[in-house]
Amino acid sequence: MKSSLKFINAKYLLLNLAAGIYFFVASGNAVMAQKIEIGAGLGALNYKGDIAPSVRLRFFKPAGSVFFRYNPSQALSLRAELMGGIIGAEDKHSKDPFQQARNFSFTSRIFEGSAVAEYNFLNFQERRFAVNWSPYVFGGIGYTKFNPDPQGVGYKTSSFVLPYGVGIKYQIRRPWNIGIEYGARKTYSDYLDNLGGDPIGTDKFQQGDPSLKDNYYYLRLAVTYTFYKIVCP
């Protein structure tokens, strides 16, 4: 009888241990799954450079992106993103007499890949029955290709960029989230608008300010999907 009781107790102990291990692994996989998001965004690009020394609303042009986000903690998110869009500007809209006389304009396609880290101020996490949102700041590194029209010769049409900015993310309904973000791209090129670098002639109308690099800005609204699938051991 004692042997049977010991066998039964050992059996229940093993079953409880196995159940505990199962739920630990399953919950661990669920947490890992909740850390992964994919998303897409639509918005607009703007440019600042020789033709537009400051950001102007009339020069916003369409852009879009897709991205992957990994959330290792409530406060930190890591994101890889691919973005494409158009930038452009026209001298004729300036109040500067020199720019009006120059009357130069351009458009350029932009293709960018970036990797950034986001810091969530309100410890963004999955909350099934609570309002879940957080403002955040981000910064990182990227690489951009551009193709200005008209295009000059003898300069590189790509550049490393430093993306940084602010945003707000909000969980509307599990597993869907929305977010709005505005970010700047500091470039290391002065040729996004085909006006830059050292003067190559005496025509002032074909010269830009070599001391200022061109920058562009991305405003977008995004939707993301969070994976909640539990992977069985």
From TrEMBL:
What region holds the DUF6089 domain? 23-232
InterPro entries referenced in this protein's UniProt entry, alphabetically:
DUF6089, OMP/PagP_B-barrel
Q: Name one Pfam family in it.
A: DUF6089
This protein's record includes keyword ATP-binding: no
Q: Which Gene3D superfamilies match?
A: 2.40.160.20
- Report the transmembrane regions from the record: 12-32
**Which protein are we looking at?**
Porin family protein
User: Taxonomic lineage per UniProt?
Assistant: Bacteria, Pseudomonadati, Bacteroidota, Cytophagia, Cytophagales
